[in-house]
Amino acid sequence: MSRGGPRRDAAVGDHLTGHLHALAALERALAHPTGEDLHAVLRDVQQALQEAMDERQLALRRYAALFDAVPDPVSILSESGVVLDLNNAGVRAYGRPREDIVGQPIEILNPDLPSDHLDPVWEALRRGETYVIEVTNMRGDGSRFPVEVHSAGFEHQGEHCIVAVARDLSSRWQAESRYRLLMESIDKGVILFDRNLQVVSANPAAHRILGTSGGSLQHLLAPEDWISVDEHGHPLTREQWPAAESLQRGRIIRSTIVGLYHRPRGRMIWISTTNVPVYSNGRDTPDHVFGLFSDITELKRNNTLFDRAQSLAHIGGWEWDRGLQRLYLTDEAARILGQDLPMQDMAHLMDCLRTDDRLQLQQALLEVIDRQVPFELELQGTRSDGHSFWVRMIGEAEAGDVDAARIAGTVQDITARKHAEETLRIQARTDPLTGIMNRDAVLGDLATRMASPTHSRVAVLYIDLDRFKTVNDMLGHNAGDELLIDATRRISTAIGTEGLVARFGGDEFLVVCDTRDQPDQPERLAEAITRAFIPPFRFGSDEFAVTTSIGIARAPQDGLRPQVLIQNADIAMYDVKRRTRNGWQVFSPELAQRQHDRLQIESRLHRALDDEEFHLVYQPQVDLKSGQLIAAEALIRWRNSQLGELRPDVFIGHAESTGDIVRIGQWVLREACRQVRLWQDAGLGIVRVAVNVSYRQFVGEDLARNVRQVLEEFDLPGTALELEFTERVLIEDAPDTLQTFGRLREMGVLLTIDDFGEGYSALNYLRRLPIHGLKLSQMFVEGVPGNRSDVAVCEAVCGIARSLGLGLVAEGIESEEQRHALHGMGISVGQGFLFAPGLAPDDFARRLARRG
User: Fold this and answer.
1) Burial of 703 (0-12, 13-18, 19+ CB in 10 A)
2) What's the rounded Cα separation, in Å, for the pair 495 and 500?
3) H or E element that contains 811
4) Measured between alpha carbons, how far is 328 from 306 in angstroms, rounded to an integer?
5) pLDDT for position 843
6) Which of 513, 509, 534 is nearest to 523 (CA)?
7) Tell me, what's the pLDDT at 501?
8) Residue 297 near residue 270 (C-beta atoms within 8 A)
9) Is this prediction's pTM over 0.70?
10) What is the pLDDT of residues 511-522, one digit of tens each?
11) DSSP 813
């Protein structure tokens, strides 16, 4: 083939047509030759051939000039795609010698072309059309540049050939205005992704299709908002997106179907997307990818693949044709609604909804019909099997449907979410241990009641369990939990339907009741609750007396806000616990004043020891038969310049809670021993002094070592000291406890359990500790001899002491009748106001002197 190629020969061929007649004449002349004719014919042929050659050379020059004058690369291809010729612009564009390209397959210029790339080209050319395609060509150095190729066909010597003009598109990247105009005008969504699949830009159609108008590009396809599935309904990871595949392979990924579910709006859409890699000038790998897509959601509505994907997201589709009164449901929507009979009209769907929700849906549909207002509702209904369901229903009229003849949307199963929300709501309002209302719930309920003019007359009972902490600490949290559960049952049974009970704190409960019709109802409920706690609580073989202290406050006189009302009920409860326990008290302003005084006590108690405000008095312990002084109990008193003199029942509880009791207890021990030393030095002999030891003092320090140091400091024998412990230590039969008691006993110190029988009947523990005696609580002594129950308890304690070989002291004796009855039971030692109150050291010394 000549340098000009088939195109150039074809251009010349047309000029030779006129000379064919001369050749025919030559043929005739040769068939019947004569001299004159032959000469003339030869002359004409020679002239015609010369003219044809001249014209052919002229045509070749014209074709070559025209071919190389084209500024874009022009290639002549054979039918199979072999490059037959290339103009000068192509040589420059591809950066290769002509001889390296001519005779090679077109893939040398575009290695990404598929094997069947010429099929659509010839298909278009046979229809007489020009084939146009955008591809990426490669230069000799491996760099890429985008081109738009226009291909046309022609024949040369019976062979089908292609002329292809490649327009370099690199300049389009600089044509921002034309690009934006194109992107904004087309109805297909176009998104440009970078190498990390971050959205660089998106045209308005993309926002419209995805329903994200006005949203930021960063959240356009954010993984936390979108679930993507392939055409078979299988979830796609971000690395499986068609855009990611196009970037990885550097190839166009055509017409891929993808389902997208938008979590926040509960919307499912389907798109058909083609992804085109983009090569920056001079790069051999793509650094961007265009995603072009169309919304095919409507086309997929009846497709089983769409149903499967919706099933994965628990979303179904529906459409209501108002003209035909026909309701269409996808399979998933029908499954969600769970009706045995097919739903053929909107009325059938409404029939399975609750009345209130049915009215909501009716109103929403009217809004769509009248005003084209879309809706989104959460509706509750009942399936045919009797189980309830919750759905999120979205609906709107089709675009352009001014009469809303068709209303369509989605229905999503949110039953599990609603059940979870209800569970969380109940959990947020319910105490997990007892199953009753918790603090937040009762505060909310009380606030609602007090805000209502018709329900503002309410009362609050603040209930605290007496001695709960001791049970919880000694028997463990499991026993404490059992006690709280049983206490809840007793309170709930006592109040019945007349009040609302809630657990307000650890061992604190709140009862709210209405006082409009029964003003005395709070007191009646308090009495019922108190009676409910008369039977002791049992833990295994042991019984424990746990009672209640109850404070009552009424609205509006005792408070206009829940916090104030509860605070005042708490003040009344605390007054009960401070005085007697096992009872109830109505709030009064006087109680509030006493509460204020208690706060004053706490603020001054911490400094009292350093300011030397404590002193001891000594109450004699006497022989009940003869009245002779046997020993004394050291009782602490606090004299403050502002508060005056305070008894231990006023401030010891505060000292226990603040931890000051440990320092105070150590001072009492040393001060009592110092006073015994002074009495001995005065010639009054050694008197045994009983000192109370706090449980916190017992477990918080090495008590035996401290006692030994004090005895040695004042050169006293151990028999000069008696330590009184509460029943709480009976439960502590740990090795450390037994060891401490053993060490104290070895010193000669007497060990006594104070207020025995008041909190526990822990006989199993009592026999394990090496103690010397028991002190019978004033709680039972005060009922002797008139109260049969108290007498029975005292007699039982006497029996226990005798059976275990323990001494027994009765405290709180105030009358001769009590003394006589207790002595008759076998109790030999007692103390109380009948004999003497707590005496100052000098007064007690005079009593000692008279003893001598």
Assistant:
1) buried
2) 8
3) strand 807-811
4) 15
5) 96
6) 513
7) 92
8) yes
9) no
10) 999 888 788 889
11) -
Q: pLDDT tens for residues 68-125?
A: 778 888 888 898 889 988 888 889 888 899 898 999 999 888 888 888 888 889 988 8
Domains along the chain with CATH numbers: 5-168 (3.30.450.20), 175-300 (3.30.450.20), 314-420 (3.30.450.20), 430-587 (3.30.70.270), 605-851 (3.20.20.450)
Q: What are residue 777's phi and psi, to 5 degrees? A: -65, 145
Q: Give the separation between CA 213 and CA 205, rounded to whole angstroms.
A: 9
Q: State the helix-helix crossing angle for 20-31 and 35-69, rounded to 10 degrees.
A: 160
Cα–Cα distance, 394 to 318 (Å, whole number): 9
Interatomic CA distance for residues 834 and 56, integer angstroms: 153
Residue 3 CA to residue 7 CA, distance in Å, equals 10
DSSP states along 372-422: ---EEEEEEEE-TTS-EEEEEEEEEEPTT-TT--EEEEEEEE-HHHHHHHH
Distance, CA of 798 to CA of 792 (rounded, Å): 10
User: Which two tokens mark 154?
Assistant: 């022609």
Burial of 83 (0-12, 13-18, 19+ CB in 10 A): buried
Question: For residue 22, what pLDDT is reported?
Answer: 46
CA distances from 220 to 15, 196, 212, 255, 302 (A): 64, 14, 7, 21, 27
pLDDT tens digits for range 655-711: 887 788 999 999 999 999 999 999 999 999 989 999 999 888 887 678 999 999 999
Residues in a beta bridge with 621: 631
* Cα separation values, 236 from 227, 257, 261, 311, 845, Å: 8, 12, 12, 16, 95
Q: Is the dihedral of CA 126, 132, 133, 136 positive or negative?
A: positive
Q: Could you identify the residue written with the tokens 């961007």?
A: 288
Q: 432 is written with which tokens?
A: 């997990």
Instruction: Name every residue whose Cβ is closer than 8 Å to that of residue 663 and which is 6 or more positions away in sequence.
Output: 609
Rounded Cα–Cα distance for residues 363 and 353 (Å): 14
Rounded Cα gap, residues 545 and 756, in angstroms: 12
Any idea which residue has 């071919």 for tokens?
A: 67
The set of residues, in sequence order, having a beta carbon less than 8 Å from that of 284 and lying 6+ positions away, is 138, 142, 143, 144
Packing angle, helices 477-495 and 521-532, rounded to 10 = 140
**Residue 177 to residues 168, 173, 214, 751, Cα–Cα distance (Å):** 18, 10, 21, 100
Sequential DSSP letters for 251-294 = S-EEEEEEEEEETTTTEEEEEEEEEEEE--TT-SS-SEEEEEEE
- d(CA 731, CA 724) in angstroms, rounded, equals 15
Contact 813, 834 (CB under 8 A): yes
Q: What percent of the chain has pLDDT over 90?
A: 34
- 662 and 694 in contact (C-beta within 8 Å)? yes
Radius of gyration of the chain (CA): 52
User: Which residues face 261 on adjacent strands?
Assistant: 227, 268
Q: What is the DSSP letter of 719?
A: G
Res. 579: pLDDT tops 90: no
Alpha carbon 119 to chain centroid, angstroms: 58
